[in-house]
Amino acid sequence: MSKIKEITTPLSPEVIASLKCGDMVCITGSIYTGRDAAHQRMMDMLAAGCDMPFDFTGNIIFYAGPTPAPPGMATGSIGPTTAGRMDAFAPELIAHGLRIMIGKGLRNNAVKQAITDHSGIYFAGVGGIAALMSQCVKNVEVVAFEDLGTEAIRRLEVERLPVIVAIDNKGNDIYNRNGT
Amino acid sequence: MREIHVNDIAAKVAELCIKACVVVAPDIRKYMQQALPTERGTARQILADMLENHDVAMRQRMPICQDTGLVVVFLDVGQDVHIVGGIIEDAVNAGVRHGYKEGYLRKSVVGDPIRRANTKDNTPAVIHYTIVPGDSLKITVCPKGFGSENMSRLAMLVPVDGIDGVKAFVLETVTAADSNACPPIVVGVGIGGTFDYAANMAKRALLRKIGTRHHDPYWADVEAGLLARINATGIGPAGFGGRTTAMAVHINTHATHIAGLPVAVNLGCHVNRHEEAVL
What we know:
- Chain A is an alpha/beta fold and 180 residues long.
- Chain A has helices at 13-18, 36-47, 90-95, 109-117, 130-134, and strands at residues 5-8, 24-33, 60-62, 100-103, 121-124, 137-144, 153-167.
- Chain A is globular.
- Chain B has helices spanning 6-22, 26-35, 41-60, 88-102, 146-149, 162-177, 195-205, 217-231; strands at residues 2-5, 70-78, 81-84, 126-132, 137-144, 153-157, 185-193, 246-256, 261-268, 275-278.
- In chain B, the strands form three sheets. Chain B has a four-stranded mixed β-sheet with strand order 4-2-5-10. Chain B has a four-stranded mixed β-sheet with strand order 6-9-7-8, sandwiched between helices.
- At the A-B interface, helix 5 of A face helix 3 of B.
């Protein structure tokens, strides 16, 4: 097993370029949740010429919708949802400055192309270990679309959130087992 | 005729929703503990993380997975039972509403599939009723996550496709699902019946305990063969490679039409939640 790489947000283009498909990475700093409904809203906002709910530069979108936080806890259980559902939106967001995504599972060719064209990166987390992953979340604040409940955009302060580089900026894909 | 009050049904459904989402079933834990030493590197680490996740969830009374699912409820109603005090469907939904609030479980249900407003209490449940002999009521609560549900498929094969066609369709479904279904998965297969009944059988197949053999040796062999082939795909835990891709293949069959061979494949993720109780 390769050594775990520690990175802190926001991520510079140099840090993104230094990470290779299959690297195990721990992320510390602010990351932003956003899944299906929030993506639809961001697309509508782009079409209307509005600013995005957070600055995309060097920042990470985490495809996730947590369970409600019990009293006294920063968050409930949280983990990545299937990234493929966001494939319909990702190339457009990447064209508008988004570079870094965390989800789980396969991405389509259009997303891979956008990642290589813009030197982005797609991290995959392990789905279904959300109680364990929640231990990395120290603070949570809703930043947009509160009415969407679990699908709102939240800023998470995380410490050593474990992910794997699934698609690096050269387009190498961890799920492409025949090609690697 | 035995009377069962709707309040008892609601209370039991609430309890089962929370338990299913927080406590991993012993058969899954046992499977993962046994699979752990057979893997190396990343695959081994991920199985270890999954086991640690079970411990954290249990210790902190938190959901194992943030996708606490759309609740599927199987009610096996004894024909000598009389439900009193209200409407059984309302009781089930009251139980779901209560369980998802008290358990701090995620509200993942939209009321209309296109307009998509969240119902905010995780109702309504999908309920399957079966009338069975006896005077008891068996409640099975299955909070179904959609990472795996979305990768499930159904095919109306024809008789000439035979067992090879069935096997090819199951393998194709698992391969297409890849990491999206959250492996190691449980593969529920319904073969025969009609379009709708095949899907129902596939869902019920997910309820069988991991490690149990099909009662019919023919189908037990098919299950074992498919499991070996699925675990040879290399998908592995979380899809990052390895030999632990599926924990089990469970097949249910039913009589079918002379012209047909329906096959449904319902995938369950590595937590494959379900809890049952008898009133």
